[in-house]
Amino acid sequence: MFSDKEEFKQAFSQKLEAKLGKTVETATEVDAYRALGSLLRERIGKKWLETNQRYEQEKEKQVYYFSMEFLIGRLMGNNLLNMQLVDVVAEGLKDLGFDLGELEEEESDAGLGNGGLGRLAACFLDSLASLGLAGHGYGIRYKYGMFDQQIIDGNQIEFPDLWLSREFVWEVRRPEEAVEVRFGGHVSSSEDEDGNLHFDHYDYEQVQAVPYDVPVVGYNSDTVNTLRLWSVEANLDDTIKKAARLNEFGNFLGHKRSLEAISEFLYPDDSHEEGKRLRLKQEYFLVSAGVQSAVRAFEQLDLPWSAFPEKVALHINDTHPAMVIPELMRVLMDEKQLGWKEAWKITQASVSYTNHTTLSEALEAWPVDMVRQLLPRIFMITEEINERFCQSLWKKYPGEFDRIAELAIIADGQVKMAHLSIVGSHSINGVARLHTEILKLREMKIFYDTFPERFNNKTNGITHRRWLMHANKPLAGLITDTIGEDWINEPAQLTDLLAYRDDAGVLDGLNHIKQKNKEKLASWVYQTKGISLDPQSIFDVHIKRLHGYKRQLLNALHIMHIYNKVKMDPSLDMAPRTFFFGAKAAQGYHYAKKIIKLINTIADVVNNDPVVSDKLKVVFLENYSVSLAERIIPAANVSEQISTASKEASGTGNMKLMMNGALTLGTMDGANVEIHELVGDDNIYTFGLSSEEVLEYYRSGGYSSKQVYETDEVVRLTVDQLIHYSPFSKGDTEFQEIYDSLVHHNDEFFVLKDFAAYAASQQQINFDYQEKQSWGKKSLINIAHAGKFSSDRTIQEYAADIWRIAPVNTFK
Length: 812
Ligand code: 26W
Known about the structure:
It comes from Thalassobacillus cyri. The protein has 812 residues and is α/β, with parallel strands linked by helices.
């Protein structure tokens, strides 16, 4: 790429001049960022082209990962890392008077996702390219990504995310690859002379789906895959003709705007299905554009349709793109003239589906009338799928009306997207072992009993390149110095670190790096928020979306409890602690927003009380995002993973924090169970109800939060502070709703029930942390076992078991 820094400097200066008409002397940091970005994008181009040519020549099977979300964050640092150019570029820039770190800060986060599901998609792309696998992302190029959160008077206020206002240097618009997507209209059928049915779709509205391709650079792999983000453009010709026909020129612009709303913004909710028409439009827009584009690529191979599943895998990231199933049927039947049976066989063999949640309020079900009106042909096909499926069930379970009604895709006036996804695919997976078991034995039991062979587990992972090598370079360096560099390509080899669990030199090195990372975070917090922190204190980190089941409230109540303890006994023996929170609440999720307000209120009280403030600090970091996570995670000592057992499908923040040497304080939920299994009791703090106990309580209704409130004095005193006159409530009714949820509405998420066990674990951490050497050992053991949670392992499992693809020969 660049053989040395001199070559880089020359190319960079030329780029500044040619692209921006600037010299090194006149360029601002933004200029330098843009020039560097487009220089790298161009240099990636050759390998990108070669990768695509290779895929075509070898007729390599292609995986298309359909996802409404790709939470990629910034790309500069990651691309430099994967191209192995970090040092050359950093040194070259330094000679020219620029700091690479500062240029990286100029990049906006591509926040095209809500949380776990979107970030997982981004980690998967990195692993696919790094492993030399032919896997690409299909998503939407939202004009506004995840909202920008500001905290004003302790409350979350949402601002639009203007990420495209600064050029997104990595993308390439490809109008020649655009496809048309149709909405609305009517469908008529007619029979030809051979008795075949044909469907004619008319009076529809048509938009252009224009792809913007982003290269996905593999680490040291010669493979550059594609993240294809679709953007809507009104078909001007069509729009004008329609306006002319209806004599509605006055509203031409309004109409154009309403069409263009489709790719305008990301729905900022990761747990409530809203049933909004625009969201359904977005989903079909992605699905139709993606399917047409994948089919077009397959046709270039000049193979019979029966070969489609051998050459194409269509993966759906949760049910949001489930209409891939009827859309592929539509294309194969209406456009390629295949019969139902053949089209169905191809569809089922090509599509696979991942479930990411068992929360019932998140399960998508679209009103029949809405689907019929907006997507008439897709609705017809879905009805037919349902019809045939129910008939087959009837043969299998004659007379079992109830079972068949429960399994049906269309029922009670709704189209159930999870049912469609299961029926139309050959593989269904959960995202951690416990989650998959819950799917099989509870949530999807009835489907599992019918199609046991389709269900499998793929425990999530994270890319160790971004989350360790990029975010925590000093730690990656220490690991390489200790065990050599093989772990980079084989992260499972991190277990070699176990041989150093008692090596004072390595443990000192590890503690030293953590300390430096904490100082760096503390100084950033001081500069940006003016709060001064003690880098010697335990950095206790709770970062994830704000949701009742994730129980930020449990953490907050516990902080109130420690505050009370210190106030009663200011000389209390405790390791000083800094609690960090980062969390966005869905815009309409009132309860979650109150919890944000509560955390900020606690922060205000604690940080400004001289009696406690050298022992306790609370920091709510606003606008939690990928780039903020990269700042916080390397500095964490304690990783809060305290969801109500059974509710967190997997979690991936738990893996990032573990890989950076934090110890998990967690319930036996999601992937915490697998972390516990690897590191053993001594190196994790588990507490609280098990998933079986929680599910049993839900079933039996046997839990009474009032009883806990009445019998546990600590709980009662703390909870009362929410509404009685206290430093936190100041006597107003701000937190009445939270109080009521705990005491009067039976505490849906078992916060009170788990409080005592949580406090005991926190107390244990308090003791253990003071033993620096043994804490370092626990930390090292966590890092050593984190290799299992590299998304490379996860992707290898998807590749082998679901997609049936293998790495292509590299061509160095
Ligand atoms: C329709 C509204 C909506 C949008 C997104 C409902 C549900 C979702 C996602 C399925 C929520 C999500 O992000 N789930 C998370 O997925 C992660 C990756 O698998 C898991 O690690 C988290 O445990 C899970 O909550």
